[in-house]
Amino acid sequence: MSGASEDGPELAELTRRLAECPRDFLDEPRIGASGRVVVAAVVFDLVNDLGGVGATNMHLPFVSDDPSDRNAMRIVLVACWLLHAPWFRARRDLGERAHAFLVEEPPLLARVVDAERFVGDPDRREELVRHVLSRLALLPRGETAAQAADRRKALDSVERRDVIEATRAAEERARKVREELARKAAEEAAAKATRE
Questions:
Q1: Each residue of 102-141: pLDDT tens digit?
Q2: Which domain holds residue 186?
Q3: Does 43 reside within a domain?
């Protein structure tokens, strides 16, 4: 993630904004011929409002026919609501960074968190705000870079899932080693009994 170095907005202001997210931003994204919200249009408008339209590397990969993209698209919409806060719009220089966040982060978050939790759950609201601020190279007002990084890591659902999966894999490897050792011990005991 980007190294946050510049003071950003108040964390509480942004988490409150997420809590007040209009239901329209959790409406069904257009996937194939179904759904109401054209996610690419919402992103384009946001990036334009943040000063990013016309960037040579801007693309809008927010069109899909795959129903498994639904949660990621809904997270994009919730993040667009967050990024349309007056503090971000007043900057007029965050469009490209916001676009990069919207392209890269929601698919990762969607694997472990339902979009509605970023509105309804206080910890997930804070997590989304911290993900956004980190990618925009901003610190929550009043926090040091170390404080912001520590708190973000503590809330990170993707990292927590990765740790859980790594722990399960290590436990499975340890179980197989124990079984193999037990099997070898049984074979050796059987061989010894046969020799005697």
A1: 999 999 999 999 999 999 999 999 999 999 999 999 999 9
A2: 157-196
A3: yes
